[in-house]
Structures are given as structure tokens and as C-alpha cells.
Amino acid sequence: MSIKTISTREVYRNPWTSVREDVIERANGQRGIYGVVDKDPACIVIPLEVTAEGEFLYLIEQFRYTVLANHLEFPQGGWETADVDPEELARGELREETGLTAGKMTHLTTFQIAYGVMNQKQVCFLAEDLKSGESEPDAEEHDLVIHRVPLERFEAMILDGTIVDNCTVAAWGIYKLWRGQQR
Fold it and tell me: What proportion of the chain, given as a percentage, has pLDDT over 90?
């Protein structure tokens, strides 16, 4: 490792996030500071419905305070616990945010979210054989709007900048690679 941690201190904590400041020493002896956001594991779910009319994806529209705007994204989130079962988390987030349950869940990969500043893994699942039910949004998710979008429209929304969530775009790229290998 080319960087050694000299000291660390927590500068902020809430139920979802902690922020620490680390004094570090690089391989050349030069010292510096890293600010690190620590978050427990999260998941992202690609809810795919295949019908006689075509393929459809379910997206969540919600207000994102950090950018003061509503955005479309795949269902995603965490339960603020480090030892959660990834598939249980994914099934729970899907149900909470959309009311959907999946007859089949496929783990596609695990990746890091914004690892330049944040230490958080995100587990990516494909959800198929979907059944509708009642959503159970958290208090912070009271304004969620569910959209059922044809696959072609979804991809156009990525290209035209309607969908800007990097996790949604990354998950879709992972799915496309995985799907290509299934053929």
C-alpha cells in the first residue's frame, strides 16, 4: 500500500452516515488529509418485466435533496447495518419502494459507489417474475413515484440525460454485459 494512515478521527455521524478525517502519509513521506464517508452496504435492483408487449423496467422517481431535484433511478438503498444479507436487502428495498416481489433474483455483481470519497459497497440484483403488491416506503420516501418504462425508452432516457443516477447507469451496463454472456 502506498499510503499509511497516521491517525483518524470521526467528525460527524448520523444513523445513515459517518464521516472521518484521516491524516495520511504517502510513500514519498509527504503527509495529507483524506475525508472519508463511511456507509453500510447498499443494493440496487433492476426490476425487469417481460410480457407479450415487450420488456419493461420499473423506476423510482424521488426528490434528491443534495441536488434539489427529482430524478429517476432503479430501486436502491440500504438498511444501515453492516451484516445484512444482500438478497434480503434487495428484496426488501424492491418491496418497500415499488410494492413488487420477485420470483427470481439474480446477483449480477458488487461494486463500490464513488470510492474517491465514500466507502460503500452496492450489490446489484436482477429481479424477474415480478408480482405487484403494496409499497412500504420509509418516512424519507413518502414522495416516491413508480414508473413502468419500456426498455427502449429507458435506454433513450440514459442517452438524453433524463436518467443521471450513476448507480442506475452502472447497473444497466452490468446487466447488458451479463445478458450478452447468457446467449
Answer: 85
Per residue in 97-119, pLDDT (tens digit) is 999 999 999 999 999 999 999 99
**Tens digit of each residue's pLDDT (9 = 90 or more) over 150-176:** 999 999 999 999 999 999 999 999 999
CB 158 within 8 A of CB 171: no
Give, in order, the Cα–Cα distances in Å from 116 to each of 32, 37, 66, 89, 119: 15, 10, 18, 25, 8
> Is 136 in a helix, a strand, or coil?
coil
CATH label of the domain that carries residue 79: 3.90.79.10
Measured CA to CA, the distance from residue 78 to residue 140 in angstroms comes to 13
Nearest to 155 by CA among 172, 171, 138: 172
- Based on the fold, state whether residues 76 and 156 are members of the same structural domain: yes
pTM of the model: 0.91
**64 CB contacts (<8 Å, ≥6 apart)?**
70, 71
Asked whether 35 and 23 are in contact (CB, 8 A), the reply is: no
**69 and 34 housed in the same domain:** no
Residues 6 or more apart whose CB falls under 8 angstroms from that of 80 comprise 15, 16, 40
Task: Domain count for the chain, please give it.
Answer: 2
